Amino acid sequence: DKYIDWYRDEFQNAIVSMNNQTGAIVAIGGGRNQSGSLNWNRATMSKIQPGSTIKPVFEYLLAFEELGWATSHTLTDRPIYLYGSDHLIANASGTYDGDMLMTEAVARSLNTPAIQTLEAVIEAKGEQFCIDYLKSIGFEFAEDTFDLQYALGGNTLQVSPVELAGAHAILFNGGHYIEPHTISRIVLADGTEYVADTKGEQVVSEDAAYLAAQLEYEVVYGGFYNYTQILKDDYPVFAKTGTTDWGDSGEEYGIPIGSAKDSWLVCSTDQYTNVIWIGFDRADVGTYITASDDNVNIKGQIGNILLDSEVEHFDYEPGYLERPDGVVSITHVRGVYPYVEPTVGTPVTGLIKKEFYHLGSASDIQYETRVGSLTDINATKIDDTTLQVDFNVLSDSSGGGMQDLTATSLSGKVTHAYGRLYFPRIRYVIPDGAVYYAEVLIDGTPVANSSSSSTSMTISVPQGLSTGQIEVCGSYNLSQDRFCKVIQ
After folding, report:
1. Which of 54, 128, 244, 309 could serve as 153's disulfide partner, Cβ 3.0–4.6 Å?
2. Which residues contact 292 (CB under 8 A, 6 or more apart)?
């Protein structure tokens, strides 16, 4: 409270600072406005949904480890109905943007890419694999409650700030989980010793841990505003924010449905991990976090103080993580997976576990074939009796664009959305025997027509084109898609 303006007395707070390499808790804060003994220590005793802070150490890390995804993997932000039900997985903004790189999805803390990533991990490895992994990094929960919402730090997944620190530290100690502790050694009267385990257990590879840490680096330095930019310093910082909401449980206190309840920040250097939680002990009138509260960014202020204080107190120089030998660079076509050589589309470069490095060729890309359709015509006068007509037909798959992201639940509930498309996977073809038709009208009266198997033709108008309004109309295979152009 000496350094932070807590302008709302009802805000509560918990803080944990932990040594990544040893698991030693070097600082802890259990709450505000506490006095006396036997106080509730929110850092160790409170169980809170972790929200989006879980994403880098759960589904995205496992995607690196088990699926062989690169940090430049493309995900599609789109509406999702959970298991086909009417429960819509949405982003905090309520909007969907379509294709994006994984680094953007994490930095912007978008929910639907995270859900799809966990779906892919479950499809490859099974639910029990994911459950066992979460337990291996210190989380406790009823296994029968596990579902896709765990990707968002939701449903029944609840953790203490200390547990969250222990989970994030694996990114900076080569993939080892070390149980956080405050006692390093005890010697009993009979000489028996207890020594804390500072080595831990290897729960993921050093390679996957490094890749997930790079996601947290991009959160701060990737150019997406997310309240972590306050942490930028002359040393590298890794971070992830998270938010959980009241749902409809606070309605009786006048809390708007979906209002924020908990606000998290995990911020690390290569040596130390800090977890900051801000929220409320219980629902009451006004106990929700507003946009104005977010903008004050108290958790960011605290994170900044902790990071700088650790550097000063422990007299160390934070550095970049050393890239393991098992991580290599990969350049591939953006928006295509399995990854292929960038001879088509837009190239993008990321990092990947060496064991998964493979680039196919453009010929390996699978396309959906559709019949091309007429999109427009152009007509020009060659002389007073002749017209040149050209037909534009959608007949290739080059370039990017937009895609329809509309989702429908099993009961028929529909959410419409439209977003970016990095690489079109539809190849339009012109069928054999296609015929193009053109008709010339002067002042609305047909005066000539022609047909051709070519997308370019000339039309002769014997009576001449010198007077009246000249209009050319074209169609493709006598379809109802008819395009007309007036020629002056």
Report:
1. 54
2. none
